[in-house]
Write a sequence for this structure.
């Protein structure tokens, strides 16, 4: 650590390994001058569970259930690299259908990983909404995984020479539907985030990594491509069948946090393009090369030997790793995930060395110009550009002046709604002769403001499994009937919209429509609790609001005399 020796008022703070702002088992030793970061030293390796030594004492099939614990966000990639190493070592051919299935699963896993990067990243900046939105699409990806593999996270789906099972009936159609839906979700993310002035102020020009720095530190994945280097192992190594699809490498040249965000957003769109092409062109045939299940050496177990007594007469399918060594790599969501494998003519690897992308990428953290930043910006490696703030404010002011003609009628309608709500509260309080929330604030204005704001800005949530059309029409019927009931109120001597002689009957006829709208919404939601709520609201309207409005009508008629 480069701590100035002349300063005596510095503070050293441990961020992690369990700090809520850190996502993963990472510890940062941060030196602070007040709230300004002076130095930062990352401490890695707190989640070391001996995965390499476990691999050296297991067969590949026995080791496969372990590898998904390497990276909970990109489980398919850990399985892929585990089977690719012995496949290349033994020159094992993978059927074309199995290769297509692998590509589909890998790209779905890439999308799930990028989504879970996006949500916490935005939450660290201060935007909580995207953190909840990303789980919407991520759960759909896990639904597809569960349908194909039986597990949502720990799949154990890849096998040497193919995959464990073929895609179930109807899975391809569901995945195509997800692709169409996800493209609209990505456009929502871009509208919500990409042009947000506050977001741009926090990430643009921050944490810049140059081309030489990225190469010298061994960076890979989005961190490397965001620095202007078009390096993607799917294009370079041409593993699986990526060279059969039409897609582009996403890259940026600025090297800042905004570029890394744009690269990941673009990669999710490209992953959807790859998945759609693979689903439309997936060939028939076997999903696994069954020929590799045989042994390379002939076993003749005798009656009392070890294999016969303790393993069984038919050992589990496996094969010997030839006496060679090689390095295999794949393009994982975080970067290059590699395995260095040495075989020794045995069913167990002699050496199994893992090259994790996150471990390599995080080593550059102290070099990202953290000096002068605030401690609150450390998790995102963010800084606030004071020079661009004025430009953003000018842009915001210009947008406001453009929206003034539009906002003026909206504001007038809002004030009218608040006045009506306030009048209703006053009349209700006068009839019932009680004080309470109707008198919140001077003359009840604050309560009307709260009720009107809640009425105008309440989120419109549509049930996914209900009758959307019926659910949407119901509130309109209830509201229209309420507005029409005001026709019988005489607003002046020459302003009478309805004949007062039949006004009561007209009001009863109109008000009877409102409970129907409430029942329609409750029934259309396809939820018994919502339906019970609609019944309760209809009953309340019949037993409470109708007599109350009759009283209002009688008072109005009396006042006219």
């Amino acid at each position: 650590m480069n701590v100035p020796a002349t300063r005596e008022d510095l503070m050293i703070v441990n961020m992690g390994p369990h700090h809520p702002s850190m996502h993963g088992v990472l510890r940062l030793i941060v030196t602070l001058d007040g709230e300004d970061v002076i130095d930062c030293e990352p401490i890695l390796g707190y989640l070391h569970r001996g995965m390499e030594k476990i691999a050296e004492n297991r067969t590949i099939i026995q080791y496969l259930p372990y590898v998904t614990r390497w990276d909970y966000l990109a489980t398919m990639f850990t399985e892929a690299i585990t089977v690719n190493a012995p496949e290349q070592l033994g020159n094992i051919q993978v059927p074309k259908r199995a290769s297509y299935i692998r590509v589909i699963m890998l790209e779905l896993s890439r999308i799930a990983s990028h989504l879970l990067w996006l949500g916490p990243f935005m939450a660290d900046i201060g935007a909580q909404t995207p953190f909840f939105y990303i789980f919407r699409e991520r759960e759909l990806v896990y639904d597809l995984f569960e349908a194909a593999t039986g597990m949502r996270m720990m799949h154990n789906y890849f096998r040497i020479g193919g995959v464990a099972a073929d895609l179930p009936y109807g899975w391809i159609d569901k995945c195509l539907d997800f692709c169409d839906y996800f493209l609209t979700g990505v456009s929502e993310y871009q509208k919500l985030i990409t042009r947000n002035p506050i977001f741009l102020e926090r990430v643009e020009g921050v944490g810049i990594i140059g081309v030489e720095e990225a190469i010298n530190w061994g960076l890979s994945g989005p961190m490397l491509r965001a620095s202007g280097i078009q390096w993607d192992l799917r294009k370079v190594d041409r593993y699986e069948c990526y060279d059969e699809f039409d897609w582009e490498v996403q890259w940026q040249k600025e090297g800042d946090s905004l570029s890394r965000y744009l690269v990941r957003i673009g990669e999710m769109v490209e992953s959807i393009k790859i998945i759609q092409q693979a689903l439309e062109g997936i060939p028939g045939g076997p999903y696994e090369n069954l020929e590799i299940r045989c042994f390379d050496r002939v076993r003749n177990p005798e009656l009392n030997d070890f294999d016969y007594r303790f393993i069984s007469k038919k050992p589990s399918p496996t094969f010997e790793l030839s006496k060679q060594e090689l390095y295999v790599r794949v393009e994982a969501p975080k970067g290059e995930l590699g395995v260095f494998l040495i075989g020794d003519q045995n069913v167990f690897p002699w050496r199994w060395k893992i090259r994790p992308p996150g471990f390599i990428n995080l080593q550059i953290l102290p070099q990202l110009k953290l000096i002068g930043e605030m401690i609150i910006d450390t998790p995102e490696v963010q800084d606030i550009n004071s020079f661009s703030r004025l430009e953003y404010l000018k842009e915001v002011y210009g947008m406001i002046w453009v929206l003034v003609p539009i906002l003026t009628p909206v504001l007038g309608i809002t004030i009218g709604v608040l006045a009506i709500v306030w009048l209703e509260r006053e009349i209700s309080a006068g009839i019932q002769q009680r004080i309470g929330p109707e008198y919140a604030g001077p003359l009840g204005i604050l309560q009307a403001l709260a009720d009107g704001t809640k009425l105008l800005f309440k989120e419109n949530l549509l049930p996914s499994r209900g009758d959307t059309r019926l659910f949407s029409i119901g509130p309109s019927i209830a509201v229209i009937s309420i507005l029409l009931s005001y026709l019988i109120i005489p607003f002046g001597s020459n302003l009478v919209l309805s004949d007062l002689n039949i006004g009561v009957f007209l009001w009863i006829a109109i008000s009877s429509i409102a409970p129907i709208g409430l029942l329609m919404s409750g029934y259309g939601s396809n939820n018994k609790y919502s339906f019970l709520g609609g019944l309760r609201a209809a009953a309340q309207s019949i037993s409470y609001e109708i007599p109350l409005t009759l009283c209002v009508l009688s008072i109005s008629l009396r006042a006219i005399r």
About this structure: Residues 233 and 388 are 36 Å apart (CA to CA).
